[in-house]
Design a protein that fits this description.
This protein has 374 residues and is of the alpha+beta class. The protein is 37% helix and 10% strand. It binds cobalamin (B12) and iron/sulfur cluster (2 copies).
């Protein structure tokens, strides 16, 4: 079983202007996608969680001001980095993180150039990124199993937004804490990130890269949001882990089959950008998010249908242990998953949540059938 992708060569840094959120926003994916992606959503939850389109009542916006900040000049001495690691992990969990790991921050984990929408507003779009912290602390926050099952709809969209806010809160709180200890620290989270969270999480020992291009963890499968704190606080790094994910994905292609836009590769891994992985069509994924007339703005089906996405029960923990034991076990588990957690179960219409149903559409807002005015 592989841990860190074995044939990793030199990996070139990625230009943030080329990531799909930005490509959609600046019109590289066509006018229809651009208009939908940059227009205010009909859904108040979207407007609360995503400050990009309507920057008024979004708590995430207020966290931007503490992503970076002054460092306390009276630094606490770090006598034993191992003790500091234990302390920081406890503090991160106290702030709400479900998983925490540490790795060395390598140059390719940092974007080469600024490419967020906020950068465009502040006239710094395209500026080179200077980030030379020694360590990256990866923070994972579990998303709700039930609400994600509605994907794609306004319901899982709200859950994803809530995950972004929660992980931003955890990362900013931890970065503030480290700066109060007297060491530089920056929080990276949705709308304020300069790093690639997934490879950082993998190198920091949270889990493995999967076919769906997400990190898969032992505890929550792919069902978690990530944030990162980069810092110069003296720490020690965790080692990458392997528990059968890459081997499982070689046998399974559920996410690829059930992806509504067919954006995930069904075949073998290829080596691209210096590491071995399954290629995905990121442009077609985000185009699909913006093409639906019901006007929700995302999708998470490649998380919900994944056999590693299960509620935390004893049988799931047992299955995770067995998946590490060899292909025979993996084939049996996949067979069981197909039998028990089949397509219908994962994509069921469900009972709804708040006033939302899976089929809630823009028309329901227009007719005031959802969030009616008092
Ligand atoms: C742009 C973006 C998208 C784009 C592009 C997707 C992508 N795979 O990059 C679109 C809009 C399609 C998208 C979709 C989704 N995204 Co997205 N996305 C991002 C974002 C903001 C930037 C990623 C980026 O720059 N990609 C461009 C290049 C680098 O992508 P790539 O070459 O395909 O590389 C991918 C992997 O191979 C890996 N990677 C890159 N370099 C290296 C090097 C090594 C050695 C290794 C091992 C891995 C690795 O990281 C990339 C992301 O997975 C990140 C946040 C962040 N800053 O990291 C979230 C993020 C990756 N997305 C996330 C999620 C969950 C999703 C969705 C499920 C949507 C949702 N509702 O939540 C789907 C999944 C689609 C998919 N199959 O990937 C999570 C992943 C959590 C997890 N468990 O892993 C992140 C980390 C957001 C977060 N804060 O939690 N997303
Ligand atoms: S988010 Fe949806 S459309 Fe995008 S890759 Fe995953 S399943 Fe496909
Ligand atoms: S659905 Fe199957 S192939 Fe896709 S990420 Fe999950 S285990 Fe891997």
């Amino acid at each position: 079983m592989s841990t860190w992708p074995s044939n990793s060569g030199p990996i070139p840094p990625f230009d943030q202007r080329e990531q799909a959120h930005t490509r959609a926003a600046i019109g590289k994916l066509g006018e229809v996608v651009q208009k939908r992606w940059t227009t205010e959503s009909v859904d108040p939850f979207r407007r609360v969680f995503y400050p990009e389109n309507r920057p008024y009542n979004s708590p995430l916006r207020s966290l931007l001001s503490v992503a970076e900040g002054p460092v306390n000049p009276a630094a606490a001495p770090v006598k034993e980095p191992a003790n500091m690691v234990a302390h920081i992990k406890e503090v991160a969990k106290f702030f709400g993180a479900h998983l925490v790991g540490i790795c060395a921050l390598e140059p390719w984990m940092v974007y080469s150039h600024k490419g967020l929408r906020i950068d465009a507003r502040k006239n710094r779009f395209g500026e080179p990124i200077e980030l030379h912290h020694r360590f990256a602390i990866s923070l994972g926050h579990e998303m709700d199993y039930e609400r994600l099952r509605y994907s794609p709809s306004f319901i899982d969209g709200a859950e994803v937004g809530a995950g972004y806010l929660e992980s931003a809160k955890i990362a900013t709180a931890l970065a503030c804490y480290i700066r109060e200890l007297g060491y530089p620290a920056t929080a990276h989270f949705h709308v304020a990130e300069r790093v690639l969270h997934v490879p950082i999480a993998i190198k920091a020992g949270l889990g493995e890269l999967a076919r769906n291009n997400c990190l898969i963890t032992r505890e929550f499968g792919p069902r978690l949001r990530l944030a990162t704190v980069t810092t110069d606080l003296p720490l020690m790094v965790d080692a990458p882990i392997a528990f059968g994910v890459q081997d499982f994905c070689t046998l399974c292609d559920k996410c690829a089959k059930l992806c509504p836009s067919q954006s995930i590769a069904k075949g073998d891994k290829v080596t691209e950008r210096g590491y071995s992985h399954w290629l995905a069509d990121n442009d077609s994924c985000i185009t699909y998010w913006n093409a639906n007339p019901d006007k929700w703005n995302d999708c998470a089906r490649c998380i919900t249908v994944c056999p590693w996405n299960k509620p935390d029960r004893w049988w799931f923990r047992l299955a995770v242990r067995l998946a590490a034991k060899g292909d025979l076990w993996r084939r049996l588990l996949l067979w069981l998953d197909n039998r028990i957690f089949d397509k219908k179960f994962h994509l069921s219409a469900g009972k709804g949540w708040l006033m939302y149903q899976r089929r809630t559409s823009a028309k329901d807002y227009e007719n005031h059938q959802i969030h009616p005015r008092a």
